[in-house]
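Bench notes, afternoon.
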Amino acid sequence: MITVVGTGTGAPPPEDVLAGAELVVGGRRHLDAVRLPGTAERVVLGPLAPALDTVAEYVAKERQVVVLASGDPGFFGIVRALAERFGPERLDVRPGVSSVAAAFARVGLPWDDAVVASAHGRELRTAVNVCRAHPKVAVLTGPGAGPAELGAALRADPRILVVASGLGSARERVERVTPAEAAARDWGTAVSVVLCLDETRALGPVRAVAGPLVGPAGWALDEAAFAHRDSMITKFEVRALALARLGPRPGDLVWDVGAGSGSVGVECARLGAAVTAVEKTRDGVERIRANAAAHGVDVRVVHGAAPTVLSDLDDPDAVFVGGGGRELPAVVTACARRARRSVVVAMAALDRVPAARAALLGAGLECDGVLLQSSRLAPLPGDVTRLAATNPVFLLWGVRPAARDEGVVQ
């Protein structure tokens, strides 16, 4: 058996486990904190592959192996790699208190409704976008993805960061800072986890299912679900296909450009994505904020005209472009050059379709589209029903080939 012991934020490993160990694997601080048998070989964890090869040699000879890890090793920890290599049946896992649980305990908050994102060995942008979209997030940090980098990315967001360092040790420190304050400091290597909180919503309602809400009960909502001006809103039939092509999900950043009422952006936020809405009219900005608040989601609203204001925004995974005007080709070009996955453009004017398509193709995206025409049921006197046609809308979408090849786009 391979005994995997979680330590660092809880009690030390049981002495009887270590007494029989012939190989002990762990981080240097874990190995230095325990008394090992004189005959046991030590392997300090660095690159994982060589350590697993050494473990395999001992397992093949049926010799006892102990792996020391931080907190709960089954939670974003080494248990996954060990189970994949040796099989779950060979593992005796003895979890400790995870750094996430300990950090929330230190600030007196429940975490059954928290989202946990790992930036250790992964792109920081995913964790950043989760922090933008959710009110309670724990971020597991790593080199180049610590509190300073997280704070720098979240300067424009109304969040508080709780930086927990050295949890379970004599040097434990838990500090509340703004993103700007976090960005200005050198935090060293002892950071265990960073909590990103919207403190106005940190105590959510009692829930029966842990974790973030899986998704809304419905989407492509009726236009009546949004405040809008003179029916200037993306109709639900168009919104349904647009959402399918955008594919918003947790960890994504979506731009809603020429947002109007913000209906597309709000729906993307309801599906878990971080959203930046760009709107040039002041009343539109307030309307988007009101719609986001009404649906209980975070949408960052930028007041200004595209494409000018787009240069200051982080690169998006997907972009929805609504509205039109003479600037449409330039807007689509700017969006298509920076979108990591897809761009969706909605147009009511036939004349604008060729230029928008050329802009998508010119940026190296694969382009497709459809003309959507729908007729809705409408009552007539005498308790009968007719079909009422809605205005036809062209929907074009461009997909980056690399994203399709990686299976990111359906």
